[in-house]
Amino acid sequence: MRGCFERGIGGFKDVVDNKDTEETISKLIDEINKNRLNAFITVREEAIDDARKVDKDKGDKKGRLLGMPIAVKDNISTKGTETTCASKILKGYVPPFDATIIDKLKREGAIIIGKTNMDEFAMGSTTETSFFGPTLNPWKNDKVPGGSSGGSAAAVAAGECIAALGTDTGGSVRCPASFCGVVGIKPTYGLVSRYGLIAYANSVEGIGSMAASVKDAETVLDIISGKDPNDSTSISLEDRSNIINNHKTEKHKRKRKIGVLTTLFNDNGTDKDVLKCVWDAIHRLESLGIEYEEIDLPNIRYALPSYYIIAMSEASSNLARFDGTRYGLSLDESLDVNLDWDSTFSKVRGEGFGKEVKRRILMGTFALSAGYYGRYYLKALKIRSLIIKDFNDAFDKSGLDAIVTPTMPYKPFNLGDKVDDPVSMYLSDIFTVPVNLTGLPSLNITCGFSEGLPIGMQMIGKAFCESDIIEIAKIYESDTNYQKKVLELF
Ligand code: GLN
């Protein structure tokens, strides 16, 4: 990929400045089309026309992402470009509108280079449930890239784009960022509009940015943030400032402080090399003037089951709209007027959805059914409230700026290792899903390598205090060379 464009820590500068954007983008498309990693489902050949326009208007047009190739996860609507959620049921679906965030990126001059591979409907942690086949980890091709935004993370790591969008319902930005060695930021719920995102589990999910450096991921996040009249859960600047001002942490305290969630990572089978890298990073931060304190969150161990019940319940309801009459796949038989509705519906869905999606629809429907609703769904919601309280108390009482955990309990594992073992797959989300239950912001940053594979550290912040964790991540990044290593390798 080297030679298509230059990348650097701390900014996009010089990527296409003084260069022929059209040529850069054409070369890049040729590279992507070699399909070494299967990171893309659709490559937008129209990106070359977009690049030509950039060259034509150069000088007049300004934009923070002018001429930059940005990749977009395939569950985000892009006008005129197929959007499949990596599912057979949506194959051939071309949205008639752009998601709000796509509009925002385009206004800054970004070139949407293509749509990235993912777990089907974002359900998974390895990108192996995609109808289009798995994405490979760029560091070692027999390993998983993480998921569900595995295509976006692999594309960033391999230089197939400058930055990418992913979605994070239960870790899907941070997990692949960790496994591919890039930076991934999951913002506070409400910071970024979800209009145009094909929903998996609305109450926990959001769109986040991925890039090779903290600064670049921050720039993209800044561009896509903001209130959107089309998404009632998005928040205005004023409300955001009020929330930030209400945080009880001392405003001008002397030293930054992080909480280390040791109880969670000591008794959960986290790999030794992961623990070592994360502790080394904590001590490094300490040497850079950032204090740490070990903390416990009493209800954190119930986060995983609570997340899966909530996510599956919401999914079972969201996915009811895919019936073969409105979007994507429709079977020839569905045109048969003699076939009753139930048979048509189950034929289309039986054919269109993969195994993991069906499993979740069934379990979610069960958890919401009369008689079990109180025992599962309602209980999960109660646990969610307790976990939100745990996090808020920890931030307030100890005056923390961030809470730190490993992002994933292990290094990237072999393709095929867990795909037929759903429980073990779900368990790999132990550190990421609690954050989605609370809506708090969190990011992944590489904190080491073992056996040639990246290891990621997670930093969780207070609501709408993305800037706190970004600042700490930048301090760490500038003192280590892990992110540079990503840029050098590809
Ligand atoms: N592994 C999580 C799940 O399958 C990740 C989901 C996500 O963040 N999209 O639910």
Largest beta-sheet characterization: 11 strands, mixed
Annotation field: number of helices: 17
Strand content: 5-15%
* Gap between N and C termini: 6 Å
Shape: globular
Q: What pattern of helices and strands is seen along the backbone?
A: HEHEHEHEHEEHHEHHEHHHHEHHEEHH
- Class based on secondary structure composition and strand pairing: alpha/beta
Q: What is the name of the CATH class of the domain at 15-248 and 469-488?
A: Alpha Beta
- Compounds present? glutamine
Fourth CATH level, the homologous superfamily of the domain at 15-248 and 469-488: Amidase signature (AS) domain
Report the CATH topology name of the domain at 15-248 and 469-488. Answer: Amidase signature (AS) enzymes
